[in-house]
Amino acid sequence: MTRRTLSVSTPRAAVRHRTGAVLLALAAALSLAGCDRQRSAESAAPASAPMSAPPMGYGGAMKAQRASAPQAEIAASLSDEARGGETALQRFLAVRQDLNVEVPAEQLADAWGKVRDLCGTLKCELLSSSLLRETPQQPGNALLEMRVEPADVDKLLGALAGVANVVSHTTTSEDKTSEVIDVEARIKNRTEFRDSLRVMLRDTVTKRTMADLLAIQRTLSDTQAELDAIATQRKVLAQQTSKQHIQIQFTPKRALVSGSDGYSPMAHALRNAGDVLAESVGALITFVAAALPWLLLVVLPVGWLVRVLWRRRRPKIA
User: Fold this and answer.
1) Pair 253, 102: CB distance under 8 Å
2) Could you report the per-residue pLDDT of 65-96, keeping only the tens digit for each?
3) What's the whole-model pTM score?
4) CA dist 258 to 73, 156, 228, 255, 261, Å?
5) What confidence tens digit (pLDDT) does each residue in 186-223 have?
6) CATH class of 93-175
7) Interior CA angle at 215 toward 209 and 219, to 5°?
8) Residue 176: exposed, middle, or buried by beta-carbon count in 10 A (0-12, 13-18, 19+)?
9) Rounded Cα distance, 313 and 5, in Å
10) Structural domain spans, the chain
11) Distances from the Cα of 149 to the Cαs of 95, 145, 249, in angstroms?
């Protein structure tokens, strides 16, 4: 009886032991799952915390404002740059400077030559130059007209101030922006039209008559000629807007005569005495040349007639 009881009780104990192990494994798995859920909830809680955070006090609001200030400044600068890029427009100005300078009469030619030679060493294009030396009849003067790069304008004017006295300096500018934009738009449109005409001429699939081909060729030639004329106009505008037009008028320095107003009638009369005498002699010669024919035609016949009458009257008186 004792042996049978032992044989039956041994399998039951094994089953119980297995059941306990399974229950322990399930409990461990459930506990691990709960820990994982708690960890995921804790990790997700900071992300959602700002959404459910309570209202901040004065200190918290100031900290948030300070933190968001750099971002606001960056956004404002970016918006300003965007608006500036949309509204900014390059301007094309034709700048002109007219100067009148005085130089001693004996140094006029040298000053004019120095400024002209300096133009050759700078980014300067000499348009015209003239020199008239002083004569007894008229004072001397000189003129320089040039186009100068803006970077070299100060060098030229500085050298000019070293050899002459600037009496007047006038600067004017003319806005050529609308003309440049119009010319560039016309160049773009004419170029696209010319390219489309060339594509039509190279097209071998579409069947065209000889008259159509000649019409396309004629239109292409006219378009190219118009495009060349517009391109030339654009080059002229580029010269006017990329360089400054400078004109310098050289005049001899006038010496002031002592007096209340700088004018002496006697000195003026002495200087002009030779001219007055020459004009008087010339007028006399002109009068004699003009009166001589009338003298031959009128005075001589009248004198002969008076003489004849005088001779006839003489015997009666005797």
Assistant:
1) yes
2) 444 444 444 444 444 444 544 456 788 999 99
3) 0.51
4) 71, 36, 63, 10, 8
5) 999 999 999 999 999 999 898 889 999 999 999 999 99
6) alpha beta
7) 150
8) middle
9) 216
10) 93-175, 178-241
11) 11, 14, 20
